[in-house]
Amino acid sequence: MVNRFLKPGALALLITIVAAACTKIENTTLGGDLIPSVDNINTFDTVLEVIATNEIPDDSTRIFASDAHIAGAIDNDPQFGSSRSSLFFEMKPASFPYVMSTDSITQFDSAVLVLDYLGYYGDSSSPVTLRLYEANKKVNADTSVKPYYTFNPDLAPNTARFLGQKTMRPLDFRDTINIKRGDSLYKKVTRQLRIPLDRNFAQALFRQDTSATGAFRSDSLFKEYLNGFALQCEGPANALLYFQMNGANSGIEFYYRAKILLSGKIDTTSARMPFTSFSGHAMKFERNRGGAEILNHLVADPTKGASQLYIQNAPGTVVKIKIPGLKTLTNRIIHRAELRVTEMTQNTTDPYFSQLLPPTLLYLDVADTGNVYKGIPYDMAPLTNYFCFPSGTIEFFYFGGPTKREVVNGELLARYYMNMTRYIQGVVTRKEPVYDFRLSSPYYLWYQNCNSNTFSYPTNVFRLLTTSNQIANLPGNGRIRLAGSNHPDPNKKLQLRIIYSKL
């Protein structure tokens, strides 16, 4: 029931880390670095206290045409609150002027909206009712001047223009659907959302032409005729469904009867309006945290931090981290400096919570001057020079961040380790800046001022990719409650452990 996305590269990312007591002898290779044994003669370890707090930031995440788009809702999450996502998009001719068929059309039959299905997050058995409307405004293409593709576009369904609906469980997308043309089987499909369109709407669209005022004459006339579509989840649900807007099968399929030009026979055939490179698209992803547990932990002791931490994929929540002890840490050889992050017990027997899985990975970056963020120096790609983000893939095997499972106090919990070794060596040896940190589960990274005299980037947008070049954290997919810096259990609390030798 909990199989959602098969996350490519996730297994390849898992790192093996042995956390030991300070007096225990250890000799381990991590990410290619040999860590000497902690013998308290030549090699020592210490734990620095951290101060961690929760934050709900303003979200500026944008979505691109090739990204997974979400429709659905999760209404039952008392820890983080509810989530609901709607889609806005255009399906239109690939080019203009557009002629539906060169054959002589004799009869319109039907039309169906098709979206390629990718996967889900949440309860695989939860029915999700999706209702299709015309959008209340034009679904415009994105521009750098006026971006439309944030998670909060100025769009809504025109509820007076209801066009069709479908109720599906994530499990249902495995079923085979038989598609017929007339009485004949045309094809068999799976993993598709298929919403039959209102006949009057579909027939009127089908009968547009290339005359001076016809919608098929030009893109601008088509947009005047049809604002675009709005796909909205209505009623209770506990699953987010992911679709590929520019998928091979996504589009509007028209079925009609025509007299075939070469044979003269009348037969049922079809035509398709796809999602094109010029199609507008947007996604409205709304979080409602009213009454959620996280609200009880937004204010914390400024000297100790929060006892419980909450991280949710974009548009989500983040954790801010300060490590005061770094400013007074004396010069030494740093063999390993590692931030340990541990999941908290769910304290519930409700099987539904086992389906709200944690993120694929967590990501640690730093707050530079003016609260502008950039990647942590040195440790994301230790063999690559970079100013604020590696030009290639982050070396997660070394840097850390992927979810791993460990037994803590007899309980199997998610754990994350973040390697800060080279950065902290620079702090103690070269007196490099001591930053504050941000721990999150991002979808895309948006860094400002990501240029220097030596390094230049064509864009400030960076995908957080796995080692197999897959997007690590899809929006809405993953949330986790963590033991904070003020948690009473030393085996779970957030902490920075340093293994070092004296000079």
Structural overview:
It is built from 5 helices and 29 strands. With 503 residues, the chain is mainly β. The strands form 7 sheets. Strands 5, 6, 7, 8, 9, 12, 13, 14, 15, 16 and 17 form an 11-stranded antiparallel sheet that branches. A 5-stranded antiparallel sheet has the order 3-29-20-24-23, covered by helices on one side. A 5-stranded antiparallel sheet has the order 4-19-25-21-22, with no helix packed on it. The chain is elongated. Residues 6-32 have low confidence and may be disordered. Residues 1-21 form the signal peptide.
Keywords:
503 residues; mainly beta; 2 domains; 11-stranded antiparallel sheet; 5-stranded antiparallel sheet; 29 strands; 7% helix; 38% strand
Which helices and strands occur, and which strands form pairs?
Layout: H1 10-13, E1 28-30, E2 33-35, E3 44-48, E4 51-55, E5 68-74, E6 82-89, E7 104-122, E8 128-135, E9 157-168, E10 177-181, E11 184-189, E12 192-196, H2 199-206, H3 219-225, E13 229-233, E14 238-244, E15 251-259, E16 266-274, E17 281-288, E18 308-312, E19 318-322, E20 333-342, E21 363-368, E22 372-375, H4 396-399, E23 404-408, E24 411-419, H5 421-430, E25 436-440, E26 444-446, E27 461-463, E28 479-483, E29 495-501
Antiparallel strand pairs: 1-2, 3-29, 4-19, 5-6, 5-14, 6-13, 6-17, 7-12, 7-14, 7-15, 8-9, 8-13, 10-11, 15-16, 18-28, 19-25, 20-24, 20-29, 21-22, 21-25, 23-24, 26-27
